[in-house]
Amino acid sequence: MSTQAAPRRAPRLTAAMREGETVSPLELFFDLVFVLAFTQCTALMADEPTWEGLAKGLLVLGVLWWSWVGYAWLTSVVDPEEDAVRLVIFGAMAALLVVGLAVPGAFGDAGLIFACAYAFVRIMHIALFMLASRDDANLRTSVIGLGISTAIASGLLVGASFADGALQGGLWALALVLDIAGPYFFGAEGWKLAPHHFSERHGLIMIIALGESIVAVGVGAEARVDAGIVVAAVLGAAVAAALWWLYFDVVALVAARRLAGAAVGREQNEMARDSYSILHLPMVAGIVLLALGMKKTLGHVDGPLKLVPATALLGGTAMYLLAHVAFRYRHIRTLNTRRLAWSGLLVAFIPVAVQIPALATIFALAAALVVLIVVETRSYGESRARTRAELRHEGEH
Fold this sequence. Notes:
This protein has two domains: about 20-190, no CATH class; about 195-395, I/LWEQ domain (Up-down Bundle), CATH 1.20.1410. Helix content is about 80%, strand content about 0%. The protein has helices at about 25-45, 50-75, 85-100, 110-130, 135-160, 165-185, 195-220, 225-250, 250-260, 265-280, 280-300, 305-330, 335-350, 350-355, 360-380, 380-395. Helix 1 packs across helix 11 (about 280-300) and helix 10 (about 265-280) runs antiparallel to helix 12. The longest helix is centred in the first third of the chain and has 27 residues, at about 50-75. Mean pLDDT is about 90; it is low at about 1-10.
């Protein structure tokens, strides 16, 4: 009796689409490194709860986000389970761990360590993309352009490590702006994209960010657990659940379908760049700011929040909702007036929040989000059910 060897999958370190594949365990493993990064960004702002501290934390989050975005695009066309790719991603994960550890001192003594480790993460990304694009001239041109903007941004961060004050902050801001603007300068035609895999990857990083808001509850409570802490923890979980609902109930499903239905090439790539790579950053930033507000709330349940933490809690949630408004407008050119109005109400509530107990503020936030969900669900209940049924049917086929 003859036996046949099991078919071997051809190695794929070339730009072959991963459409139809789900996010791999290695990609999930890679993303989990960002749990530390998000936590450290929150810690950086918590240790310096000033406007300057918020700015520093958001700048660090921005450059970390853009490094993650690069790998999300990369693994749409490169199989992360190939041995060579695995080793490079493991190396990038180690460097990201160093980056995360250096976040609290990114504007101080650990600035150079942060910049060098971050540059290594980006270099590994560009190197893999160069290998993957060796048989695709259009992709190679796009990768070279990205490599230029990456080199400039990394160099600015290294330079910022030797500066301080306004100059240092300016160099960080310039590095972030030039890095994000790079794809706009060099065009979107050459990139390749697996839309279902790409949207799923962003959904998972949103869950990781929401997990940071849950972590903030535990960190804020420290070793003390009393009735006030218990109520605040429950309300914090309700807020996190509401943010999850607002994104995953319909928004993420419809956006994924629209991305998949866009014309392959420039249209699809630009939609992915704008809707996911760019507009998901304020969503994640809003969640991280919320986590800061939650941490401060759990630390002082009975007293009012100071202005900066109150702004982080309510303004961060408003930023999250405004990013949803922009997300919808980018896709279908219509405004979600409810979420726009709710974001305005949350910002308007900040002066009240600094006068009332923090527990009352988190209760008001949770109530506002629940009411928003109820209003939206009742207003488009039939279309929501129909959309979810259609998408479920598409997923089964």
